[in-house]
UniProtKB/TrEMBL annotation:
Pfam families according to UniProt: 7tm_4
Keyword Cell membrane on entry: yes
InterPro entries: GPCR_Rhodpsn, GPCR_Rhodpsn_7TM, Olfact_rcpt
Ranges annotated as spanning the membrane: 24-45, 57-77, 138-160, 195-224, 236-258, 270-290
Leader peptide range in chain numbering: none
Chief location of this protein within or outside the cell: membrane
Top-level taxon: Eukaryota
Membrane topology, from the record: Multi-pass membrane protein
Protein name: Olfactory receptor
Cellular compartments annotated: Cell membrane; Membrane
Family: Belongs to the G-protein coupled receptor 1 family.
Species, as recorded: Sapajus apella
Gene Ontology CC terms: plasma membrane
Record key words, sorted: Cell membrane, G-protein coupled receptor, Membrane, Olfaction, Receptor, Sensory transduction, Transducer, Transmembrane, Transmembrane helix
Length: 311
């Protein structure tokens, strides 16, 4: 697709007008970013170093942590550079690249949460078939499908954006290159792009969510039917951290993209996007570790090994 754009860069929305506030917010977002990187990296290392956690559920959790690092890095790193240098611009190719990785990692978050819900459904509702249904080969296949589908969706949106013309350098009403704010700056016909946003965007958002809801519609009655002492509590505890992550992620995501036009605004969209691209990836490691005894033990072993090596 040939791009006819004469624009070499875009301006990104500042997170604050006041220079003093910008520096304060820079420190806050930098701390959040570092906590996100450290927390998710610890989750990956803990799962990788503990043989007891080499199960499908923790396999997808480790991949989710990797995706959270990518999602935050694709948006926050550029914002931090812009605040520090006080040049709130992004090149045309940089904008398309950022859009591609943001879409890919954001969609992967939804797909991996759906895969984890399916894993819990099989483990609780069909325990006798769990080792067969969730075999390493099946997990690898699910992982491959998630990466392929999200890459196809992200590449489709990026290529469709590349065919548009941008006649005037304008300010993107966001702190990163999201599809809708960038489309508003185009002087070309964006009908195809808007249709694909509705079709593909709605599909990758709603379908995984429906898979999660359907899984828990079956999981909850199955847990309530458990009569063994402590069995119901143990079964629910394996789902509680996943449910918390789902509620936080989809709550902020729906508020950003499914908000009614009557109450929608650029400020609210930016705040909601900041929640699921910055805050949610930071919270996920805490939710996983604080509400999961196996993760707590794995993290303690990981820190114990580090102390032994350092001594």
């Amino acid at each position: 697709m040939e791009n006819q754009s004469s624009v070499s860069e875009f301006f990104l929305r500042r997170i604050s007008v006041s220079p003093e506030q910008q520096q304060s917010l820079f420190g806050i977002f930098l701390c959040i970013y570092l906590v996100t990187l450290t927390g998710n990296l610890l989750i990956i290392l803990a799962i990788g170093s503990d043989l007891h956690l080499h199960t499908p559920m923790y396999f997808f959790l480790a991949n989710l942590s990797f995706v959270d690092i990518g999602l935050t890095s694709s948006t926050v790193s550029k914002m931090l550079v812009n605040v520090q240098t006080r040049h709130h611009t992004i090149s045309y190719m940089g904008c398309l690249t950022q859009m591609y990785f943001f879409l890919m990692f954001g969609d992967l978050d939804s797909f991996f949460l759906a895969a984890m819900a399916y894993d819990r459904y099989v483990a609780i509702c069909c325990p006798l078939y769990y080792s067969t249904v969730m075999s390493p080969q099946v997990c690898a296949l699910i992982l491959t499908l998630c990466w392929v589908l999200t890459n196809v969706v992200a590449l489709t949106h990026t290529l469709l954006m590349a065919r548009l013309s941008f006649c005037v350098t304008g300010e993107i009403a966001h702190f990163f290159c999201d599809i809708t704010p960038v489309l508003k700056l185009s002087c070309s016909d964006t009908h195809i792009n808007e249709m694909m946003v509705f079709v593909l965007g709605g599909t990758v958002l709603i379908v995984p969510f429906l898979c999660i809801v359907t899984s828990y519609i079956h999981i909850v009655p199955a847990i309530l039917r458990i009569r063994t002492h402590g069995g119901a509590g143990k079964a629910f505890s394996t789902c509680s951290s996943h449910l918390c992550i789902v509620c936080v992620f989809y709550g902020t995501l729906f508020s950003a993209y499914l908000c009614p036009p009557s109450i929608a605004s650029e400020e609210k969209d930016i705040a909601a996007a900041a929640m699921y691209t910055i805050v949610t990836p930071m919270l996920n490691p805490f939710i996983c570790s604080l509400r999961n005894k196996d993760m707590k033990r794995a993290l303690k072993r990981l820190f114990g090994q580090r102390k032994i090596v350092s001594s």
